[in-house]
Amino acid sequence: MKDYSLYVGIAAGICTGVSLLPQLVKTIKEKKAESISFFMLLILLAGVGGWVWYGILKKDYPIIITNSFSFIINLLIIGFSMKYKSKSTH
């Protein structure tokens, strides 16, 4: 029987990373971020950062690559959230 674990891991990582894209696009498009939980984003950032670190320790490139993508998207959402939340309070 063939081992599909690599493909399952890559598919799961891609789904996780891509799941944040609609929120990023919506935040940039609407220039609003009132309903985004900053605390949730920080917890998620810590979690994905942990997965990147784990992947580095295990030399598991699918984990490193997919979670690095998630980390970057999460940072962008945090950055735009801070930018647009500060504009809406002035």
Keywords:
mainly alpha; Monooxygenase; 0% strand
Description:
81% of the residues lie in helices and 0% in strands. With 90 residues, the protein is mostly helical. The chain has a single domain, classed as Monooxygenase (Up-down Bundle). Helix 3 runs antiparallel to helix 4 (61-88). The radius of gyration is 15 Å and the shape is elongated.
Question: How is this fold's topology laid out?
Answer:
Blueprint: H1 5-18, H2 21-30, H3 38-58, H4 61-88
Kindly summarize this structure in a few lines.
With 90 residues, the protein is mainly α. It has a single domain (5-85), classed as Up-down Bundle (Monooxygenase), CATH 1.20.1280.290.
Distance separating the two termini: 61 Å
CATH architecture: Up-down Bundle
Major β-sheet, in short? Answer: none
Q: What is the number of helical segments per DSSP (H or I, 4+ residues)? A: 4
CATH class membership: Mainly Alpha
Uncertain regions spanning at least 5 consecutive residues: none
Total domain modules: 1
Helix content: over 70%
> From the helix content, strand content and strand pairing, which structural class follows?
mainly alpha
Query: What's the count of strands?
Result: 0
Mean pLDDT over the full residue set: 88
What is the 3D shape?
A: elongated
Order of helices and strands: HHHH
Which band does the percent of strand residues land in?
under 5%
CATH fold type: Monooxygenase
As a whole number of angstroms, the C-alpha radius of gyration is 15 Å
